Structure formats: C-alpha cells, structure tokens
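Students often ask why we bother encoding 3D structure as a string. The short answer is that it lets us treat folding as translation between two languages. Here is a chain of 176 residues written in the first language.
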Amino acid sequence: TKPTKPSRLYNALLSLNETETSTTGTSSASSSALQMMQNVNELDIPINIRILLAEDNTVNQRVALLSLKRLGLRAALASNGVEAIQALEDIGYDLVLMDVHMPEMDGLEATRRIRKHPTIRQPYIAAVTANATTQDQKLCIDAGMNDYLSKPYRVRDLLKMIRRYAEWAAKSGRQR
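And here it is in the second language, the structure alphabet:
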C-alpha cells in the first residue's frame, strides 16, 4: 500500500529473488516464473512485443521492469506523457503501460493525444494506477485506454493483461 517505507519495499523485492529449494531441486520462485513463461508461450505471445512503460516513479519503474522480466519481456521507459508520445512517434510500440498520474502530462491526456495523433500506429494502452475505483477505471476507458491495471499488481495480474492484449492483437490483425 502507498505510502510504503523503503525498507518494506526493499524486503518485498528481495523476497522475489529468494529461492526455496523444493523436493525437485528447483526454487518456488523459479518454478512460478517458469509456469508464467509457459502461460505466455501457450498464448503464442511473441517475446518481441514492443512495450513502452510510461511511469515517472523510479521504484515503480523497477518493479514493472522486474515483473516484465519475469515474463520474459522487456520495455522501454518514458517518464511522463510528453516522453510517451515522443517515443510512440519514434517507434511503433505494441503495448503501452501508462501511469495515470505523471508530471508535465498525465496518462489520461497523453492517451487522448495518442488516439488523435494521425501518424502514431495505435497501440494497446493499459492504465496503471493506484486509483482503483470504478469511476477511475471509467475515466481511463473514456480517455481511450484499452485496459486497466491497479497498483500494486502482481505478475499474474500483468500476465492477465498481456493475455487481453494478445486477444486484441489477434482480433485486430496486429500480432507480430
């Protein structure tokens, strides 16, 4: 929960890397990551999905990048909505994880501008926010976002969202 003490966050991140050897000799963390990778592969999600993470908070950036890494995915970073739009003009990202509250330009306004931009290849945009009410979710969808992920999220929540992206990409003919 927010606000969190740095020591609590540090311990939580450390626990992600801890290995508890099971009777098969693999760690529980490794086996759960392996299971998630198998789930991603079962969906035929290519590992080369171009992902943009639009997030201003460095701790949240690290958590998101680590979560994506556990799924075998990588992302480029943008620290605000202005940078996100510039990144999308430069590179055709497939999936954008868009923080709603950022400096200079928030995720809602950035999404509105992306959706109106004539030359940007339209990506799947998922809101990532600590605001978890149905009203907040409606604001995100009304701004043009495809999906919604509330913070803090687990890797399995991220995986579910990526599955929804994969379904959208298949239906819209955007699978790579």
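Translate back mentally: The mean pLDDT is 82. Keep this in mind for the problem set.
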